[in-house]
Write a structure and sequence with these properties.
heterodimer; A: 265 residues; mainly alpha; MetI-like fold; 12 helices; B: 245 residues; 2 domains; extended
Chain lengths: 265, 245
């Protein structure tokens, strides 16, 4: 059916609205000036160099990677176990349990951050790497839980039953049948968990201490305190890296499902 | 052995679970335990402590809450928060409707592109996004210069309520588009043809048939946008994957 032309205009206007602010980061990061002036007076790679060479920025990237490297696997294991556990409950209990465990997603971050900060301060965890890892893990668990649970709900248990009836031990059935079929859910959950923890500002801001400033906190300080244009290079790198990961997962996913529907036909 | 397995396939899951007895219940508890401990230690206890502190310090009673609503400042902030949330929800619905509608009528390849675009606010770093808006809105920025040149407004947009509204509606637009798309995609388009076949104009068919059918989607999208204004990120990318036809 032919659609009116103003529909196209509206759609591409909205699409532009969604993308434009992010696209502005790239030319900004190549600025040769030392302010946030736009368009930049000249071009250079100085802010990228600063991102790599300045110890402040390099340490922030390393701390963020370190926190994510601990928090993501922790969240993946805890969230995946919980999803399997929930699937063994009755329908009503499962829905209630999933809602309770993913509540952190709807509670405002600042409230969670303040609460955790108050408790960690008393436990001496504030300002430590362990405190950051625990805080980020807690925020990341629901992402894994929801992704794996969605995948498990579409999983046909008769595959497991078939494997068992053909003589596989429960462990073998899990390793060779259930796990590979659930894996896309776990991978998606891990990606969300990584992104959520790598990009988290509020908790990291409250729990920061000397020597464990994460990249988002450093970026926040760069705007609020220092007006340091290195943030534009950091933002660009963040956007490009995260987009690459997300798109790779999405493309892999589409190809997989295309292959599967191809096999079915 | 084989017969029981075949019988089990057809059976609902619940009796099976009950059959396995206590050993399996222990396994269920063990699987859930880490998540429950994490939730108790990192949310329930810290948040509960805040509630207790709010009621007991400096003296036991509702004094802190009375202060909150009578200091003349908090109430104003609260009202502004709700007002902004409402305005963002309305703005997002206005943008989401044509976008979600186009997603239901376009070709699959275009739909994939639109899906990717709508999810951009989800995966771009919150700080990077805000920084992008800051560059646009700052004094001497593109928007500022445009406003000066066209309307003669000599006041940077950065730090004003309209700037907050614009940036927030971008961040939350996916929350409006995805549920709305899910609803619009279910509407049987032949109903529109039927209305037009019965003599209604295109506009009238849209207003009297399509719009009422899309109301549940609009309500869901509006509520979600309004509520999630406070929560920063959420996992709808995985719903999108599931709802994709």
């Amino acid at each position: 059916m032919k659609q009116p032309p103003y529909l196209y205009i509206a759609v591409w206007a909205v699409a532009g609205f969604l993308t434009v602010p992010t696209l502005f980061l790239v030319p900004m990061s190549l600025s040769g000036g030392s302010t946030f002036q736009f368009p930049p007076p000249s071009w250079s790679l100085q802010w990228y160099r600063n991102l790599v060479e300045s110890s402040e920025w390099r340490d922030a990237v390393l701390v963020s990677l370190q926190v994510a490297a601990f928090a993501t696997p922790l969240a993946v294991v805890i969230g995946t176990c919980a999803a399997f556990g929930l699937m063994r409950l009755g329908r009503r209990l499962r829905i209630a349990g999933a809602a309770a465990l993913s509540a952190p997603l709807v509670i405002p971050n600042i409230l969670i951050a303040l609460a955790i900060y108050g408790t960690f301060l008393r436990l001496g965890l504030s300002g430590t790497l362990l405190g950051l890892v625990l805080g980020q893990t807690a925020l990341a668990i629901p992402f894994v839980l929801i992704a794996v649970l969605a995948r498990l709900q579409g999983y046909d248990r008769s595959y497991t039953t078939a494997a068992l009836s053909l003589g596989a031990s429960p462990a073998t059935a899990f390793r060779t049948v259930t796990f590979p079929l659930i894996l896309p859910g776990i991978v998606a959950g891990a990606v969300f968990a990584f992104v959520a923890s790598f990009d988290e500002l509020v908790i990291a801001l409250l729990l920061q201490g000397p020597g464990n400033v994460t990249l988002p906190v450093q970026m926040f300080n760069a705007v609020v305190e220092a007006a340091d244009p290195t943030i534009s290079a950091a933002s660009t790198v963040l956007v490009v890296v995260v987009s690459a990961v997300v798109l790779a997962v999405q493309i892999g996913w589409t190809r997989r499902s295309e292959q599967r529907s191809g096999d079915g036909a | 052995m084989t017969t029981t397995a075949v019988l089990e396939v057809g059976r609902p899951a619940r009796p099976r679970a009950a059959e396995r007895g206590t050993g399996s219940r222990t396994a269920t508890l063990l699987l859930l335990l880490p998540a429950v401990i994490a939730a108790l230690a990192l949310f329930v206890y810290p948040l509960g402590r805040i509630v207790v502190v709010s009621l007991t310090e400096p003296t036991v009673g509702l004094g802190n809450y009375v202060d909150l609503f009578t200091d003349g400042y908090t109430l104003r902030v609260l009202i502004r928060t709700l007002w902004v949330a409402l305005a963002v929800a309305v703005l997002d619905l206005l943008m989401a409707f044509p976008f979600a509608y186009a997603m239901t009528v376009c070709r699959p390849r275009t739909r994939a592109v639109l899906f990717t675009i709508v999810l951009i606010p989800f995966w771009t770093s919150a700080l990077a996004k805000n920084f992008g808006w800051m560059i646009l809105f700052q004094r001497g920025g593109l928007v500022d210069r445009f406003l000066q040149a066209t309307l003669g407004i000599d006041h940077p947009l950065l730090g004003t309520t309209p700037a907050v509204l614009i940036a927030m509606s971008q961040v939350l637009l996916p929350f409006a588009v995805l549920p709305l798309y899910a609803r619009l995609d279910q509407i049987d388009r032949r109903l529109l043809d039927a209305a037009q076949g019965l003599g209604a104009s295109r506009t009238r068919a849209f207003r009297q048939v399509y719009l009422p059918l899309s109301t549940p989607g609009l309500v869901a999208a509006g509520t979600l946008t309004f509520i999630s204004r406070s929560a920063s990120t959420s996992p709808p990318p995985c719903w999108a994957h599931r709802s994709r036809p």
